[in-house]
Amino acid sequence: MSRVGVQGFQRGRLDQVLAARRLTQVQLALMVGVSPATLSKWCTGMHAPEREALERLARVVNVAPDWFTRTPGAKVLQPLFRSNAPAHAAARALLEARIGWAQDVAAALMEYGVSYGDVYLPTRTYTHPEEITAEAIEQAAEECRGMWRLGRSEIEDLALAAEWAGIILVREETGIAQIEGLSAWSKVLRRPIVLLSADQDNGYRGRFDLAHEVGHLVLHRCIERPTEPARHKLLEQQAHLFAGAFLLPAETFAAEVLLHPTLDDLLLLKRRWGVSVAAIITRLRTLQLLDEDGARMLLKRRSVRWGAKSEPGDGDRKPEKPRSLRRAIDLLVEKNIIPLEAVPGHIGLASVDIEALAGLPEGYLRGKANNRIGQGSNVVPLRPLFK
């Protein structure tokens, strides 16, 4: 317990905000106008800031002062990251803080009667990745499609389908190019959260990233997060295989593939199925419609013709946008359940953070935008948002 300062100060909140704002203790101490030793005592719980210092701290990191006295919700279960490199530790900490804040936003809206529905995901209880076979991945992907009522054709809007299945989905610019997304299970919400990077305006890549995270949620829920590079790589490979099987179901997709497909043939499949040529080549190899040499040759031609990081038509498909959190806030305001200006105070985070996490237009919570997706919209949710 803190010996001095504001009663109830939650040092866990300070850890969150340091990660979310990418600040060191020394940097934050200078910004707040206290010594690094003082801030260190706040972080360890030895002391708590006095009222004036707390207000300066809150102003500097752009949250409500009383946010620091609110007990943080239970941490989301440790997510898996695409990059496990030590150099990316700060990036992982930032994204974990952001996904924790997304949990806070979703939980705060539930206090007003918002419901996110039941969760529809296949149950798998693997405890070691070595237990998971290629056949098991195909079966899990097929079962997931069945639970989501997607049939065996191309998926029109994967983000909408994921939210229908009870997943809390966030898409925001993170400034972290090396980590495209992460997912975790929330005990507070009793459902998973997926955070996707919006830094690249590529709808094909975004769909695959989401399917990849669904793969982690289904296959790896009961597996401890590995520290060994080889095991981490295996988990990533399995999530990739799931994404390919989920987006490109074996029977119907294979029926559309020519015997010796060219890159131009694959571009047509890309536009139809909403999956990149690179991912299609990998799927063809998995289905043994290409042998290893054939897949390698096509990937090499792709790289020579288009480069390693882009393909023709990448801009043709806009990234799919999450709707649930945005629509929940919009409806709460529209139905006069909570005033627009009261939303940040209820949640405790800055308007800009809530807008980013909920996919709201910039300035919406400050009365500077009027772009709601409520009852007058042509976007119709597949489930009611209120209990």
Structure overview:
With 387 residues, the chain is mostly helical. The chain has a domain of 72 residues: lambda repressor-like DNA-binding domains (434 Repressor (Amino-terminal Domain), Orthogonal Bundle), CATH 1.10.260. The protein has 16 helices and four strands. Strand 3 and strand 4 form a beta hairpin. Helix 1 crosses helix 5 and helix 6 crosses helix 9. The chain is elongated and about 75 Å long. Belongs to the short-chain fatty acyl-CoA assimilation regulator (ScfR) family. Pfam families: HTH_3, Peptidase_M78. InterPro entries: Cro/C1-type_HTH, IrrE_HExxH, Lambda_DNA-bd_dom_sf, Rad_response_metalloprotease. This is ImmA/IrrE family metallo-endopeptidase.
Summarize the structure.
The protein starts with 10 loop residues before the first helix and ends in a 29-residue tail after the last helix. The longest helix has 22 residues, at 89-110.
